[in-house]
User: What shape does this take?
Amino acid sequence: MTQTAPDPAAPLVFDTAELGRSSGTTMHVALEVPAPAGLGLAGYAVPESSPLDVDVHLTAVSEGVLADGEVGAVAEGECARCLAPVQDALRVQVQELYAYEGSVTDATTEADEILRLSGDLLDLEPAVRDALVLAMPVTPLCRPDCPGLCADCGVPWDELPDDHVHETVDPRWAGLDKLRLADTDGESK
Ligand SMILES: [Zn+2]
Ligand SMILES: [Zn+2]
Assistant: This one.
């Protein structure tokens, strides 16, 4: 069980001392904090320092503190089909138990199964990261029916006329085509 002590100054680390480990006591955390780095995947993430809207209740239970609420953030990335910038407002549920050090839960589970409090400090970041990453699309799209790019010229279909086709060979490529023909069937025109 190796969990580094949370930095009390980190934006998602909250001091739960006021709960006094008294079951049923709740504190409400509602604030906007700068997003830490690494909230997302390659090519689609919540930009570092962008606003993270945190609205959670921290409730003392017998084995620790339950964090329960919502987190909102704007994720940015690239459309997987047309490469246009994509921006999505994400709102995710966070529900996570943080075990007291020395509790039965602390003694009987691994830190990667159940998170731990560090003294009275609760680091919400891993719970927020997991919830956000789960809500992120495997294939980000600018819109569900994005037609992507023309395979021949690489121009987004959205910017091309409906009758866009490549049956007539562009004069810039005609020479190349001749070479290709000559190469494949020995016939040159
Ligand atoms: Zn797109
Ligand atoms: Zn085209």
About this structure: The longest helix spans residues 171-185. Helices lie at 104-108, 125-135, 171-185. The CA atoms of residues 106 and 117 lie 10 Å apart.
